[in-house]
């Protein structure tokens, strides 16, 4: 999850960098359009991530903690009956925590791969845009019209190549945020909820055993 958030932060920072126009450059409009697209992409995905984080991490953990609390509250009714199940309770809780950890490790590995691709695409956008801006500024310093025209010809070629590559980078980032990230989140969501649900069912069975124990002691 941290890898994904870091990637989106890079996208947002890149959009800020691209939003700095090259005054008078023929590519001002295109660069501004790229900046807007990246900024919106980062903002929309960031909002979705907050919601997904609650579903994947917070909800299963709360579900597990609630089930544990319910068992612990039974000690007030009959400490001995609950104590008789302590070993089993600890085993269930430890197994649940281990499964939740495995879910997190798997998600982190997949997220790292996505982050690498997004960061690479973002670097192409940022450094390519910076290089293009430097070239434009360099051309503007020429006083000789022939040299300036020659420099600007190179600038146009470089700018055209940059915009083609930029669209490819945007496509990579979009695929990551629209397809790959949701897939990782969906898989992680299923993984954590299955682990929590299994533990809750097992703890409910423990509660039933405690009920039976209390009934026999009366």
From TrEMBL:
Name recorded for this polypeptide: CG12057
Domain named Protein TsetseEP: residues: 79-195
Pfam families membership: DUF725
Keyword annotations of the record: Signal
Signal peptide positions (record): 1-19
Organism: Drosophila busckii
Protein's UniProt keywords contain Signal: yes
Organism domain of life: Eukaryota
């Amino acid at each position: 999850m941290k890898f994904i958030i870091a990637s989106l932060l890079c996208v947002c920072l890149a959009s800020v960098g691209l939003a700095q126009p090259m005054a008078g450059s023929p590519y001002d409009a295109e660069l501004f359009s790229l900046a807007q697209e990246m900024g919106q992409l980062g903002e929309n995905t960031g909002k979705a991530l907050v919601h997904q984080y609650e579903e994947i991490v917070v909800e299963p953990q709360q579900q597990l903690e609630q089930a544990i609390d319910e068992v612990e509250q039974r000690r007030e009714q009959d400490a001995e009956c609950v104590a008789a199940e302590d070993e089993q309770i600890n085993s269930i809780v430890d197994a649940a925590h281990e499964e939740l950890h495995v879910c997190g490790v798997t998600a982190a590995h997949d997220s790292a791969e996505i982050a690498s691709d997004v960061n690479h695409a973002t670097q192409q956008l940022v450094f390519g845009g910076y290089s293009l801006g430097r070239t434009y500024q360099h051309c503007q310093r020429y006083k000789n019209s022939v040299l300036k025209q020659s420099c600007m010809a190179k600038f146009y070629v470089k700018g055209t190549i940059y915009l083609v590559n930029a669209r490819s980078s945007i496509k990579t980032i979009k695929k990551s945020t629209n397809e790959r990230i949701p897939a990782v989140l969906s898989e992680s969501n299923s993984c954590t909820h299955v682990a929590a649900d299994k533990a809750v069912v097992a703890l409910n069975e423990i509660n039933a055993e405690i009920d039976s124990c209390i009934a026999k002691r009366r």
